[in-house]
Amino acid sequence: MAGNSYGTLYKVTTFGESHGEALGGIIDGCPSGIQLDLEAIEVEMSRRKPGQSAIVTQRKEPDAVQFLSGIFEGKTTGTPIGFIIPNTNQKSDDYSHIKDNYRPSHADYVYDQKYGFRDYRGGGRSSARETASRVVAGAIAKQMLPEIKINAYVSSVGPIHLDTPYQELDFSKIESNPVRCPDEKSAAIMEEYIRDIRKQGDTVGGVVSCVIQNVPVGLGEPVFDKLHAELGKAMLSINAVKGFEYGSGFLGSEMKGSEHNDLYNPDGTTKTNLSGGIQGGISNGMDIYFRVAFKPVATIMQTQDSLDNKGNITPMTGKGRHDPCVVPRAVPIVEAMAAIVLADFYLINKTY
Amino acid sequence: MAGNSYGTLYKVTTFGESHGEALGGIIDGCPSGIQLDLEAIEVEMSRRKPGQSAIVTQRKEPDAVQFLSGIFEGKTTGTPIGFIIPNTNQKSDDYSHIKDNYRPSHADYVYDQKYGFRDYRGGGRSSARETASRVVAGAIAKQMLPEIKINAYVSSVGPIHLDTPYQELDFSKIESNPVRCPDEKSAAIMEEYIRDIRKQGDTVGGVVSCVIQNVPVGLGEPVFDKLHAELGKAMLSINAVKGFEYGSGFLGSEMKGSEHNDLYNPDGTTKTNLSGGIQGGISNGMDIYFRVAFKPVATIMQTQDSLDNKGNITPMTGKGRHDPCVVPRAVPIVEAMAAIVLADFYLINKTY
Amino acid sequence: MAGNSYGTLYKVTTFGESHGEALGGIIDGCPSGIQLDLEAIEVEMSRRKPGQSAIVTQRKEPDAVQFLSGIFEGKTTGTPIGFIIPNTNQKSDDYSHIKDNYRPSHADYVYDQKYGFRDYRGGGRSSARETASRVVAGAIAKQMLPEIKINAYVSSVGPIHLDTPYQELDFSKIESNPVRCPDEKSAAIMEEYIRDIRKQGDTVGGVVSCVIQNVPVGLGEPVFDKLHAELGKAMLSINAVKGFEYGSGFLGSEMKGSEHNDLYNPDGTTKTNLSGGIQGGISNGMDIYFRVAFKPVATIMQTQDSLDNKGNITPMTGKGRHDPCVVPRAVPIVEAMAAIVLADFYLINKTY
Amino acid sequence: MAGNSYGTLYKVTTFGESHGEALGGIIDGCPSGIQLDLEAIEVEMSRRKPGQSAIVTQRKEPDAVQFLSGIFEGKTTGTPIGFIIPNTNQKSDDYSHIKDNYRPSHADYVYDQKYGFRDYRGGGRSSARETASRVVAGAIAKQMLPEIKINAYVSSVGPIHLDTPYQELDFSKIESNPVRCPDEKSAAIMEEYIRDIRKQGDTVGGVVSCVIQNVPVGLGEPVFDKLHAELGKAMLSINAVKGFEYGSGFLGSEMKGSEHNDLYNPDGTTKTNLSGGIQGGISNGMDIYFRVAFKPVATIMQTQDSLDNKGNITPMTGKGRHDPCVVPRAVPIVEAMAAIVLADFYLINKTY
Q1: Which of C174, C276, D202, D210 is deepest in the core (most CB within 10 A)?
Q2: What is the DSSP track for C54-82?
């Protein structure tokens, strides 16, 4: 029960540490006969990888995924899809300074407490590098559900918010700037803010919004495995996520029922969609939308006190990579996890 | 995969419709030898039940739980604990008016779409009455983990917020008022607000905050089953929940890393706790705290348009129970789900 | 993980001790819209219950099942089906003599070792009475798969074997005699043998054979969850089972490939069926058949040495019920478990 | 639910086709801090691999396992252990003759029916080559449980049986002959028999017996996940297995209770052990022993009729590898699956 699998019928299991030989995973339950577009998978991988622009981390990760099974003559066979992503940059010496030290707000301390010791290189298993495997699984899930459109984008960086309703945004602009914000003016301000944060050697958080369109009615299970409960878990499982809300979200808690209820059109659609496309845990065919809050990553280039494994407080300065704002890179990860959740419920729904 | 189970090692499965003969469930995996305090279970049940005061619904639900197995001479035996909660009030005629009608923002429509038909009486399986079974399972989980203290309370009702940090609150006051807000002044304002909402025949949402203390270091699994991801899923599985945030939450997304990082004390505790007691998905021994947003319930006493199963829009007025604000009643449910999640991870952690 | 659930998509969880207030279970995942024949369920229950004839145990168990949820207007709703079977005969004093004693070849000793103590009345959770809940779940699974025919029968009692190939048997005769052997001559000899065993105060084992017809091609998953592996597990989970073989079974291990291979007909059927209807773990449309070996039950009416919980060997004589041969009563249980396994794979197969 | 995982807490997921780029798997749940003996793992791998002697298949499979994660400085870290076993011999043309043909008693036909098409090279996913990954997982499970001794051996080949009770055998002789039969005389006869079968271009089945010693009391869960039920499923999931029996097995079904009951010694051990070390599904500390029946493998070097995918019957002669008796090679696989099952229950038992 070490928690490295997600899903029931579209089941993704991942392995790999930041500086081990390779990351990878197994997708079990992908139906047979899907003609895979491998290039589209590489596009998703490249969206996630660091070093894409001046505002994000400079580490070079080629992130070439190698499929080892489950695909024959370009199509999925229905058997498990095994894949690896070699770690080409495994210089362990970079991390010797944290071998015996617990960085503030990192997982170093709890890993040592839970497991007795840890692979300290680059954060080991707790590194966000693990999400590369999720992006592979999500890219395949997207191809399994071609009619469903999943669009995530950055809606805030630190104190800078894009408050425009998603209906007024042009999703085709998301990839046109390094911040992945579809509103160009906001994007420019966010980018400048991040540059400033970078100069300070600091980091900043933000929010990713996600909109899912063309979802059939009926996905999601009542009671414990509600569609939004699984989406929430999937998002909260991404590194640095602190909050999740869907539909009216926290603001909805301030509303009255007479304001919040979504009245029906004769065709079963609703005039408003404060419900966020989900009623009683089950998709109702309207757009699903949600927001995911990311804290600033803990690795900063300033000097901060750390704890060593003998109980001494010692100052430490961040070394190596500096990623002042991971939120743009989180966009494809949010989409990937959404796709995995939908693929799973799509298969479950076939059993009714 | 109908989604009626929660947990891996402390596994809770529930059954039952609002107006069926009985609700109930099975708790599988509760260790043997726990001397159960049945009265404490009844106290939790009575905290959840409607009709406790003028501001909540008036329906009488005795909610007497009958244990059928897994307990011998007052102690758990390690075998599954089966229990039922008879529905003593099954007047079906109350609900004939919704037989062919889909109420706005209820699960009526999606149930019919997903399952082909539904038990329309009182919302059937989608009714929050199902949470009575969760409260039973949570009450036993609490007794399994006597050292861990779980305190939930109402921190906002509609637009009225209690912003006092939890450290300054006296949790012993939570049960002293019908709103379950530990700050008496705020409680009085909230209560008056709810009375006003009741008069309007309307409903209102709110926020439940929860604080968990004395959690050992090490609970939670890395990657997909992070402690906060499971807590989030558990909370989002409660009826009417629209959002979840823990530690710094959505506000944390506006902060800088240099502000957000929690610096260590020599004993491994931290000077601040913006992390909310969880690092990398694993408890670090500090207080765990989170907030859960509830939308206003959909059943209002005003007239609203509904959809019938022939595609006609027809006005409908809520009948029967009126629960202007379910948020106080959600407090024991939030605690129950938190206890279930912790019990599960507590058992998982024993396998390392 | 206390092991009280079976199945993934058609998931059965049971609870209950022999002498607790009630047994019962939850069936989660049964599709909606199945018109249930409750009388047919009662027939299965009555096939399992003791006291049906002179050769089996005399205890009266009415075994009336009460459905509490998941059924509305006679049809399954797709929500979990909760049910209980009250224990009407709970005279605890009958079992005080085994409170501190471990009967040979019973689970008394291991339960005390594993759980620290046990509900000693009537074997508690280890009693075969638990299988009543399985029969309920199996009866519903049978109704879910009306085209599939499952016929089990007794093919040996102690040293008396019915060696006639199943193709030459008339399954309609199975219920015509208390031994549940479709060959009347063999049945008579077996019955006499059991009467003799009863007089000796002894017990005897036997074999149940099962034939499943009209199974669609494609049920079963490759690798770990092969159809016959799940059937094997399901059968081995029935009390007193010591062995399972399918198709050619143990005899097949003595054969040559040239003899054992099943040659095809042009329509994909095979001329022989030593494979037992399963190739590579997946049903091939031919008849599935298997054999299940039951040891003699441990409770005999003779005096045998037992162990008490202080380490003393003390003679003990069986009291109360005497069931000289449970094998006929195991017939409906074998069918029930087969039906549950098939229902689960049937649903899984819909996801391809 | 494509069935490529085994276990709950020690969870093994495998991937890979016979002639894909690589096989591999993920072991999730292995506790941290186990100093791995990689050489011992290679020894297990070499025991499984073909081409070890004249009586088995001649294919060269180096089967070098590469560990990619979960191990740091020689010890398990508690994070998932990912590994691959490259397929160095991927000559696809060898198998073009079976592209459109279904070989008798192979999985070709059912795979095409279930999945729509298949990777036909070398049997694809249905090849026993998949068991290489199981041997890796089993070898690590063995190291996790150093005190438990698992010894499997060949107890029959075709009609030649070794009937000596295991207590009288010298397990250290198992590896001293290519048949893996600890009795040298029987081994010689079996070997000669297999040579003869090879000359005939035929194959033959056999039985593997397995003895597990030093198992602590308490492993196994009551009801559905009985220890022997999981062992049975694990064994039946191995290619070509047709039957499983433990303890007294099928012979036990012919016995009387008075003969079969195992009387206690004062220390809780039993004078006899017809129960096979398991009571009520839970280990009682006595030796666990069971037998696994293997049919002859279907690939023979004689000409047999096959079916093509257009419904034509066409004669086909086996090509390439000829493995007249896989039973000796199955010995390490039986041990591996037993180790995996025990590791899983060992971890589960820690949660009580």
Answers
A1: C276
A2: TTS---------EE-SSEETTEE-SS-EE
